[in-house]
Amino acid sequence: MTAVVVEDLYMTYRAPIRGSGWKETLSSVFNRRYREVPAVQNVSFALAPGEVVGFIGPNGAGKTTTMKILSGLLHATSGHVRVLGYSPWQRRSDFLRRIAFIRGSQPVGGSQELTVLDTLQYQRLLYDVPPADYRRNLDELTELLDLKDLLQRQLRALSLGEKMRAGLALSLLYRPEVMFLDEPTLGLDVTGATTMRRFVAGYAERAGATVLLTSHYMADVASLCPRLVLIDKGKVQYDGQLDQLAAKLSPYKLLRLTAPNADEERLKEAGEVVEASNGTWVLRVPREEVARTTARLLTELEVADLAVEEAPLEAVIDRAYREGVG
Ligand SMILES: Nc1ncnc2c1ncn2[C@@H]1O[C@H](COP(=O)(O)OP(=O)(O)OP(=O)(O)O)[C@@H](O)[C@H]1O
């Protein structure tokens, strides 16, 4: 059984055309015209239960639209979508109890005057969480998300990182089996983002949850997602393993070499020098020549340390966005 199935998904928004200037604005009130904005075109992919998959693409690629369709907030123009066997747009309560859609840009909705604890209790009633499960889950989430000092505070008084932790607790209180995470580390500091990643990975593993995650931060993708679905202009450009994408798009590897007495001119013959400081060099070497170049450097130089690294993921993804995956 697959957790999420998307086949031939299309979504077109109907956006009103508004004129500029008061005359045109007034006339567009009485004489409405619309234009069709294609957001998702022929998207297909499937997620197995327990898979954690990165859903990435440049701004406006169609990621949030797809997630809104998968969580039932939007009805697709056409195509076939199933999440845990349900049609999401029907928004049946038993479906909603098994999924969570968490957005870094709006981590907690509802009244901002309520305290975190009140909101959690309200959530318990809304999602019909049995009292014993509620207490157990709340204790666990309080510990893992460091919520103790936040429980009595009003939502409106929380920082972005604190709101995100509260938002996660609200969504995970009912133990969803599928999570759609839309930029969960948006605006978080380094520690906040690391906590978030660790928490998501831990929850997915413990609960066996399926996770589809969008992020513009490659550190999220690299640390959480062995598989990527890359979309651009509403179409899937790549669906496969992250490391295979890196191998395909980056014909180079980096050799990080510490050799205090090395001659830079000699190193330039081995590869392009991209960094040099205090006896440590980073050379960019064509992938197919890495083994030969490494062996040569080790025999010719007095090498204190040598490591072979993949090109940074940012560079790989930037290339995928600019030039396509091909
Ligand atoms: N309510 C709407 N009405 C009209 N067009 C929309 C609407 N929402 C999104 N779009 C358009 O649909 C396309 C896809 O938008 P979407 O928000 O899904 O992209 P995204 O990949 O999530 O982008 P980002 O990374 O910037 O959040 C864009 O061209 C966007 O302008």
TrEMBL record:
<dbReference type="GO" id="GO:0005524">
    <property type="term" value="F:ATP binding"/>
</dbReference>
<dbReference type="InterPro" id="IPR027417">
    <property type="entry name" value="P-loop_NTPase"/>
</dbReference>
<dbReference type="InterPro" id="IPR003593">
    <property type="entry name" value="AAA+_ATPase"/>
</dbReference>
<keyword id="KW-0046">Antibiotic resistance</keyword>
<dbReference type="GO" id="GO:0046677">
    <property type="term" value="P:response to antibiotic"/>
</dbReference>
<keyword id="KW-0813">Transport</keyword>
<dbReference type="GO" id="GO:0016887">
    <property type="term" value="F:ATP hydrolysis activity"/>
</dbReference>
<feature type="domain" description="ABC transporter">
    <location>
        <begin position="24"/>
        <end position="258"/>
    </location>
</feature>
<keyword id="KW-0547">Nucleotide-binding</keyword>
<protein>
    <submittedName>
        <fullName>ABC-2 type transport system ATP-binding protein</fullName>
    </submittedName>
</protein>
<dbReference type="InterPro" id="IPR003439">
    <property type="entry name" value="ABC_transporter-like_ATP-bd"/>
</dbReference>
<keyword id="KW-0067">ATP-binding</keyword>
<dbReference type="GO" id="GO:0005886">
    <property type="term" value="C:plasma membrane"/>
</dbReference>
<dbReference type="InterPro" id="IPR050763">
    <property type="entry name" value="ABC_transporter_ATP-binding"/>
</dbReference>
<dbReference type="InterPro" id="IPR017871">
    <property type="entry name" value="ABC_transporter-like_CS"/>
</dbReference>
<dbReference type="Pfam" id="PF00005">
    <property type="entry name" value="ABC_tran"/>
</dbReference>
